[in-house]
Amino acid sequence: MKASLTVIFCTLLALASSNVMASTFRCGSKLVSLGDRATTVIRLCGKPVSRENVGYTSGFYNRDEQPIEEWLYGPKGGMYYYLRFVGGELVKISSER
């Protein structure tokens, strides 16, 4: 009974980790975090495999449009890492196997 619960737990854990969000991204021995500028990420991690303009965003009160970009790094150990920038600031880090 205990072994079957362990197998079920491991299976659920593997499924949950297939699309993970994080607040940091490791580039070799360097670490980038949410809030870092795009220039900092390029300096620490190098150029991404892919760089895509997703669109623009603007606030309700603030009418300044800011570009949204999504960068792809990987595969690293079978994982792809997606970094989303709004106005040149890292706002989301997610990964997918």
Describe, in plain words, how this protein is organized in 3D.
There is one protein chain. The protein has two helices and seven strands; from the N terminus they run αβββαββββ. Helices cover 24% and strands 48% of the residues. The protein has a single domain (21-96), classed as 2-Layer Sandwich (Beta-lactamase Inhibitory Protein, Chain:B, domain 1). The chain has a five-stranded antiparallel sheet with strand order 1-7-6-5-4, with no helix packed on it. A two-stranded antiparallel ribbon has the order 2-3. By secondary structure, it is α+β, with helices and mostly antiparallel strands.
Descriptive keywords:
Beta-lactamase Inhibitory Protein, Chain:B, domain 1; 48% strand; 5-stranded antiparallel beta sheet; 7 strands; 97 residues; two-stranded antiparallel ribbon
Q: Give the end-to-end Cα distance, rounded to a whole number of Å.
A: 30 Å
Helix content: 10-25%
How are helices and strands ordered from N to C?
A: HEEEHEEEE
> Which sequence of strands runs across the widest sheet?
1-7-6-5-4
> Biggest sheet, in brief?
5 strands, antiparallel
pLDDT < 50 stretches: 7-18
**Level-1 CATH class name:** Alpha Beta
Give a quick summary of the entry.
This protein has helices at residues 2-16, 38-45; strands spanning 19-22, 24-27, 30-33, 50-57, 66-76, 79-86, 89-96. By secondary structure, the protein is of the alpha+beta class.
